[in-house]
Model the fold of this input.
Amino acid sequence: MKTKITELFGIEHPIIQGGMHYVGFAEMAAAVSNAGGLGIITGLTQKTPADLANEIARCNDMTDKPFGVNLTMLPGFANPDYPGYIKAIIEGGVKIVETAGRSPEPLLPALKEAGIKVIHKCTSVRHSLKAEKIGCDAVSVDGFECGGHPGEDDIPNMILLPRAAEELSIPFVASGGMGNGKQLVAALALGADGINMGTRFIATKDAPVHQNVKEALVQATELDTRLILRPLRNTERVLTNSAVEKMIEVEKAKGAETTIDDVKDFIAGVYPKVMQDGDLEAGAWSCGMVAGLIHDIPTCQELIDNIMAEANSIIADRLGKLAS
Ligand SMILES: Cc1cc2nc3c(=O)[nH]c(=O)nc-3n(C[C@H](O)[C@H](O)[C@H](O)COP(=O)(O)O)c2cc1C
Done:
């Protein structure tokens, strides 16, 4: 399937694996790229630019297909060495960067000068338009369903995607809630040129995370995610567990007065414990509502092949026959 996104990134299928903390290692990105999608290494999971350079080199050893690096722009108080990470990206020969979080404007001159294509992930039409205006090549439009940070507007993809299509000139992918071929076709119908998936890619044989995490996603239903950090206006969708329920009680009790100190024990240092040690109750970790559609743990190749086969057959058979 050829779309503006497959053309822009030189990939076979319009399917991107979004950056994921402690999931987006070289093994994950290479498996997705080798299967014809666009795999993405999560930059900030690597503690230093030198570590990122090493991770990019490992990925280059595992695939000769295009892959990207995610640079998440953290809230103002955190200050990673973004210029150092960008140097590692450029020197590693990576040609695609996924930005997310705050505006990527400060990073764009260096990335563009190096001929790198930038896809910015954001959760509203206004932020998408800003990304277009500052020179991003594409946008990942992240609906309210998404795992991770859905923003504060709470607009689901059934509305957000056609709104983005009304306003944007650059291509965009549908992100949040995506997991199968029906949804790819729906996303295309709503104006997107592909899909971005996070949670669905965690439940694959190739994902370099503990088996407990993959099985938890198969067990979970669409009712099992919760929103945390809402009082801090940094909302995150996570899989529920005992730590998350306790955190929500604290947030309810403190209301608008909640501070990061009140909740930091539920979120700090959780990812390695969950993703590597398989301690699912260690704290809050991102997960999307698409968990309700995850029933198996395929390889990335099988997952992407199945999505494309389902999408192609829906377009050719079901929709083709409905058209009058
Ligand atoms: C465990 C996990 C960790 C994530 N970490 C990041 C991250 O570090 N940076 C980022 O930009 N997005 C992150 N995301 C968001 C994904 O890239 C993607 O936008 C989101 O998962 C899409 O929604 P879905 O999970 O419904 O597919 C994370 C998502 C998950 C599930």
User: Anything to note?
Assistant: The chain has two domains: 4-209, 225-286. The first helix runs from residue 4 to 9. Strands lie at 15-17, 39-42, 67-73, 96-101, 117-122, 138-142, 172-175, 195-197, 225-228, 236-239.
